[in-house]
Amino acid sequence: MTKKEKVQLISDTLNNLYPVVDAPLEHSDPYTLLIAVLLSAQCTDARVNKITPLLFAKADTPQKMITLTVDEIRAIIRPCGLSPRKSKAIYELSHIILNEHGGEVPQSFEALEALPGVGHKTASVVMAQAFGVAAFPVDTHIHRLAYRWNLTTGKNVKQTEKDLKRLFPEDTWNKLHLQIIFFGREYCPARSHKPNECPLCSVIGRKELFK
To answer: What does the pLDDT look like over 86-138, one tens digit per residue?
Structure first.
């Protein structure tokens, strides 16, 4: 199978399994998405979706968020883990959005990545899901599957993102990154993976998977 054929098979399979994809993190606007993505670091989307309604009931805008103290934010988001760092980042980035961006979440990678607690992956999710800008956020699911499917060397997420962007058409990135995440959770987990039963690994997985 050529790499081109492999890419086509992956695209066809994922489009068949997930013709419509919705963002897994519940949000109502770019700001609430930004906060939800920040909270999702080393935390499941399911847990984030349980915590954000509690936080957003008190503060769903940067104007409201800065009326809370860091300790009040931390108390709410504690179940998401890393609460000392995340609460401080949420408080500080809310101030920056108000003071430097007119109260609106900035619509550029550079400005987003300059915010406390916001790395390239978080910025990519916001750019893709909030603003419709082509991006390919690479999380652990995508990084793992891209390596399993021999689409990347798997050395780091930066290289994986570069390789996937090179292989797949730009107009598919925003949908594709979600499709791969859903596929990884449902068919291709990190543990207890059964490659012979996986719709894609059974066809294109690395040989060492089957030893």
So the answer is: 999 999 999 999 999 999 999 999 999 999 999 999 999 999 999 999 999 99
Question: Which of 95, 129, 163 marks a domain boundary?
Answer: 129
Residue 86 designated active-site: no
Q: What is the pLDDT of residues 141-162, one digit of tens each?
A: 899 999 999 999 878 999 999 9
Entry pTM = 0.91
Write the DSSP symbol of residue 152.
Answer: S
* 151 token code pair: 């689409």
Pair (35, 106) in one structural domain:
yes
Structural domain including 192 reads 3-21+136-210
Assess whether 29 carries a catalytic annotation. no
- Phi (first) and psi of residue 46, to 5 degrees: -60, -40
For residues 150 and 118, state if they share a domain: no
Catalytic residue selected from 45, 139, 165, 175: 139
Q: Which of 72, 97, 129 represents a domain boundary (last residue)?
A: 129
Three-state secondary structure call for residue 26: coil
Provide the token pair at 57. 């009931």
